[in-house]
């Protein structure tokens, strides 16, 4: 059995056992079964595209579709079945591979409440948002200097949301919306036609019936997903690069898949370019002062053990996009437990944040004992059958997608306290880690990393 088939066989077992969805990176051309495949070509020069790059692509039978100049890479289409072999002959090329498709994290979804059914005050926060209360100590952090609570402290701090878009007309988000861009072919509007990105944005900066971790932070939409389906690696990398160029302070990526490095017969043939490009985009953002936060994934597996995802223990499986320089977030529940779906792993998790689950009596193998009151609530759009936004609402979801934005918001809160451009991303990460509530094993552990994020502790840490 081939390595790729072994990977999917191992994944299927995870799917059935944990009732989650595997978001593997899939080669675009291969997945669509087209004779014309889409590739990534990463050049040795990280600062730009080298002289002669276009000729090298053309000589190998390729056509440049998109240029990521600042990352030293291009997206290419080709009908030449030997394109990869030919283009790698160029001395300019570091690596090339089939371009992968990445998906938003699949979440557990609960019921919704219409925003049109107006109730005076922050009733959604008061009645449902245990997760925001857990991070802020029942709103105590909002009262501290720089806490970006119900004040103006965070008005200049922007968190970029690389996701399905944002319902920027939502009553709880419209005043904190800082603009957006779409990287989805055929969709120019950064509006959310899914609900995922709006839920993420509300966890960060909702200010109305719902409240985010930083209700006076700003959010910007960098839309990479259409109404359905995934996003090409190059589009996500371009969104991250653009967010950095736009001088956002933090970026949240509640998305991902897996790349696998297996035995020599297949070793990294199709995926090194994908990993290289993501790494360059992450480092570009960090070098430009952006704190990058990402979700750990919802497959309930040990990311430090390749056999859990690939079906054997040869090689390694890489969470993508991911980097030691990011803040990688696992998901916890209302009882400060590791959520049943959350990935974990020594060296793969930095902190844990509340992402919601289905309660202490839920059995993932049978679906019995489900309790939706343990889900994380936030803002969502109301969509019609054609995925158009026709209203605004609040809904419950569960996932590491819901955990990461609370950490991204905390990063924004920390930056607001110390002043814009006064901390490096590494310093922001250190403050969040050092102020986290220690759970499970003393010190660092594979489930919560350095612990459960805590905004009060973070703001009091000097």
Strand content: 15-25%
Oligomer: single chain
Mean pLDDT: 86
- Measured as a percent range, the helix fraction is 25-40%
Distance between the termini: 55 Å
Low-confidence stretches: 1-34, 263-269
Main sheet overview = 7 strands, parallel
Radius of gyration: 21 Å
Structural shape: globular
Count of β-strands: 19
Main β-sheet, spatial strand arrangement: 9-10-8-12-14-16-17
Give the helix/strand class.
Answer: alpha/beta
Number of helices: 13
Short recap of the structure:
With 462 residues, the chain is an alpha/beta fold. It has 13 helices and 19 strands.
Write a concise keyword list for the protein shown above:
13 helices, single chain, alpha/beta, 462 residues, five-stranded antiparallel beta sheet
Written overview of the protein:
The structure is a single chain. By secondary structure, the protein is an alpha/beta fold. The chain is 27% helix and 24% strand. It has 13 helices and 19 strands. The chain is globular, with a radius of gyration of 21 Å.
Topology:
Blueprint (H helix, E strand, L loop, with lengths): L2 H16 L7 E2 H5 L4 E7 L9 H7 L2 E7 L4 E6 L4 H5 L5 E6 L1 E5 L3 E7 L8 H6 L1 H7 L21 E6 L13 E6 L13 H10 L12 E6 L7 E2 H13 L4 E4 L1 E7 L10 H16 L3 E5 L11 H4 L5 E5 L6 E6 L18 E4 L21 E8 L5 E10 L1 H19 L6 H10 L20 H6 L2
Parallel strand pairs: 8-10, 8-12, 9-10, 12-14, 14-16, 16-17
Antiparallel strand pairs: 1-6, 2-4, 2-5, 3-4, 6-11, 6-13, 7-19, 13-15, 18-19
